[in-house]
Amino acid sequence: IRDRVSLITLAVADPERAATFYEALGWRRVPASDGVIAFDLIAQTLGLYSRAGLAAELGIVESAIGGFSGVTLAYNVREKDEVAPLLLAAEAAGGTVLKPAQDVLWGGHHGYFADPDGHVWEVAHNPFSRLGPNGEFQWSGID
Fold first, then answer.
1. What pLDDT is stored for residue 120 in this prediction?
2. Which among 86, 64, 61, 60 has a CA at the least distance from the CA of 73?
3. Model confidence, pTM
4. Distance between CA atoms of 34 and 38, rounded to whole angstroms?
5. Which residues in the chain show pLDDT less than 50?
6. Euclidean distance between CA atoms 17 and 107, whole angstroms
7. Quick check: 15 and 9 in contact, CB under 8 A?
């Protein structure tokens, strides 16, 4: 198996409401099917799928999906001063700021928000991991 993530699917209570949140952050939908709302990202896609639909697809009861899973998604930015405005944009779109923008012990700057369904996102500036020309992120940086 190659080392990549191709599709991230988030189980959401109301796919249209969730899509409206991400659209308010400036993301653009792409054509999708079978109840999935999709947003193409850099080298992967974020899919929004109803909690009930995903539970049925997995063959589990819907109540088995939910709560903080221990997984966070991250949006890395080029400059430290980009973190706080993105957290505020997420809050204005209906998200909840969990941790305001702040310097981090290891030399970066970050904050966290939860989308309307509770999925946790980190907005981060890592001065040691330069982004590529299209915003690509790799831990060791892009040359």
1. 92
2. 86
3. 0.85
4. 11
5. none
6. 36
7. no
